[in-house]
Design goal:
Rossmann fold, CheY-like_superfamily, 40% helix, alpha/beta, single chain, 2 domains, ATP binding, 5-stranded parallel beta sheet, 16% strand
């Protein structure tokens, strides 16, 4: 994705121009450009090659939309476009090829977004608003202008604390509210509920990956993962109980690497035993979301896991989330729990049995089925905080990043605005 070299500065360039191949798409685009305050005359007939020809003799706009429909070699033509564009041009591609590999390659080359025809007014409006926000957003210099991948592992201190519910809800929020292409990896190979929570069949994708790690590549990911929505795909399994997990963990590392190439975010539903057996799974994880409940056993295991992280994964930022909180009913008070783990609980999610039943009946993630509930609001706060913590890591890592493959297009961070939420969420009922 692209960002301006200098935030908010477009010079004397036009704010927007589009080169579109068909009248149907132009009919959708022009009213939206008028809404944005731009001249509809800037929506011209013609595709990517017309854009290259026109921009070779005129300054490129701040935001450029180009149609790839008539391009026989989109990636090569994009390189030609880069040669005639001003640094910092935000480019939105439009096309009719629904191909994950093309989408991934276009993003890797520096394109801000790829919209699939037929376009809707809402889709165009959202894309243009996001592109325009790049210029308005404050920047901390070039360090945060690199493409990054955000990863969180969700671990429960005890069985039944709701870690899988939290994992599926976070993945759903990343993909919908935060508009990030997201992968959900459910590593409970025998009893995982990630697909079930999304009302999907798990398929054999994860099982095949474990059995044949050498097969894992971009094409495998495209075929093996199950789509939950436009931005969310899941890889899970429901392996027979007669088949023990036989792996050295290399398949999981390869999957994470492919996810970093194909998605903007990864959520790993990571059972405790997998954390112990395959600690290298946290090598590229930004945030470990540790889900607990207000019991003595959970307090003990929270202490143990936090201590283990300091020794084995010091680069991972932990967030402690207390789930199913019932004021006045808890086995241990919040104050005593925090005293025992020697740190604050970051978020409290209230117990809501009716909401959980409602989600199960609807075949939806908890947060999707219960957006108006206090628990749903708390989960949205957790999602924003995970992205906020990961943002700081990403900016630091991006300092050593390289320029986009296009040479002239500068990559925009896949992060959203840093969460302003600090400390515990006020969601204790």
């Amino acid at each position: 994705m692209n960002a301006p070299w200098k935030s908010g500065m477009t010079g004397n360039r036009d704010p927007f121009a589009a080169f579109i191949c068909d009248e149907t798409t132009l009919d959708v685009l022009r009213p939206v450009t008028i809404e944005m305050g731009w001249a509809p005359e800037k929506c011209a007939k013609g595709g990517l090659r017309n854009a290259v020809q026109s921009l070779s003799i005129a300054a490129s706009p701040a935001i450029l939309m180009v149609d790839l429909s008539e391009s026989g070699d989109p990636l090569n033509d994009i390189n030609a476009l880069a040669e005639v564009c001003e640094p910092g041009t935000v480019v939105i591609a439009v096309g009719q090829v629904n191909d994950v590999r093309l989408y991934r390659d276009l993003l890797a080359s520096g394109i801000h977004d790829y919209l699939l025809k037929p376009l809707s007014a809402g889709q165009v409006r959202d894309a243009l608003n996001q592109a325009q926000a790049i210029f308005a957003a404050p920047r901390g210099g070039d360090a945060d202008a690199a493409k990054v991948h955000l990863s969180t592992a969700v671990v429960g201190t005890r069985g039944g604390v709701g870690a899988s519910t939290l994992a599926t809800s976070l993945a759903w929020l990343f993909s919908t509210d935060h508009q990030r292409p997201t992968a959900l990896l459910d590593l409970d190979v025998h009893f995982g509920t990630g697909a079930l929570a999304l009302d999907l069949e798990p398929g054999r994708g994860l099982t095949d990956a474990i059995e044949n790690p050498s097969r894992i590549d971009g094409l495998f990911i495209e075929r093996a993962m199950i789509r939950a929505n436009e931005n969310l795909a899941i890889l899970s399994a429901e392996a027979p109980m007669s088949s023990p997990l036989m792996t050295d963990g290399s398949a999981f590392m390869q999957l994470e690497e492919e996810f970093r190439q194909a998605f903007a975010a990864t959520v790993i539903d990571l059972p405790r035993n997998m954390l112990i057996n395959f600690p290298h799974l946290l090598a590229e994880v930004n945030v470990l979301t540790l889900v607990t409940e207000m019991t003595l056993a959970s307090a003990r295991d929270t202490i143990r896991i936090l201590s283990w992280l300091k020794t084995n994964a010091p680069g991972v930022q932990p967030l402690v989330v207390a789930n199913k909180v019932q004021p006045g009913v808890a086995e241990i008070s919040k104050a005593d729990f925090e005293a025992s783990i020697e740190r604050r609980i970051d978020f409290l999610i209230p117990y809501d049995h009716k909401a959980a039943v409602n989600a199960a009946k609807l075949g939806q993630t908890f947060v999707d089925a219960n957006r108006a509930s206090k628990a749903g609001a708390a989960l949205r706060e957790v999602a924003s905080a995970v992205l906020g913590v990961a943002e700081e890591d990403a900016i630091n890592e991006a300092a050593a990043g390289t320029q986009s493959l296009l040479g002239k297009f500068d990559l925009k961070s896949l992060l959203g605005k840093k969460s302003k939420t600090k400390g515990a969420a006020a969601a204790d009922g």
